[in-house]
Fold this protein.
Amino acid sequence: MRTLTLVAGVLVLGACGGSSSVGIPDSMGPEDVADAVGPDGIAGTDDGGAVCGTCVVHGRWKIDNLSPCFNTSVPGSDGSVEVLGVVSTILEGTMVSCPADLSKAPAAAWSIDALTTDCPGHYRLCVTLKAGDASNPAPADCTVAQSCAEGDYAAGGQQQAWAALPGWIAVGAPAIACANTMYLGGGYSELSVGGTATGCGSVSRAFARIPYCPVSCNLAPAGPGCAACSSGVGDGSF
């Protein structure tokens, strides 16, 4: 067996349909997260839509780690490998590593994070790992795993430390099969927000997708397409 940690990049997304990106590599594949943007309205993202009609128009979710750990078989004579399992990584300072025990969800948090929005309220923020093309997502894109952090946001416009994203493990044959699809064909992390803004109603929206860079960036961070894959943070704005 061998393990691979995937490294996340930085993402910035404009509010209510606008978007901008930093350092998107020319080619992106299944490993190591790069920068990308892609608003996706579960409950409307266009100007004047359902989400933009609430007071939660602007928000920013900063995540210090979005890296999963792939447990793979030893390469065969043809170089092929099989994903045996996927778990969340552990963040210690600026270092990301795989847990010692790959058979269960780590007790340590996946990541610390912080939230800033226009309105107080109760929010649930989720990271969902999916197989597929971040620039052309499809409803059929399967899910490897999801980690969510929920709580009450107190003061509008003020950055607030948010509940840590808990450790996770991909469970069941469908999730492992999806992990193999992600490993071979590419995947992304999708950031979403749900909840209730005080005095403004419900919010439900996917607001960013972060694709994964080639596995070669693990071994050669300075290689082609790896310039944006050196950081372990995620930063999505909605």
Notes: The longest strand covers residues 121-131. Residues 1-53, 230-238 have pLDDT under 50 and may be disordered.
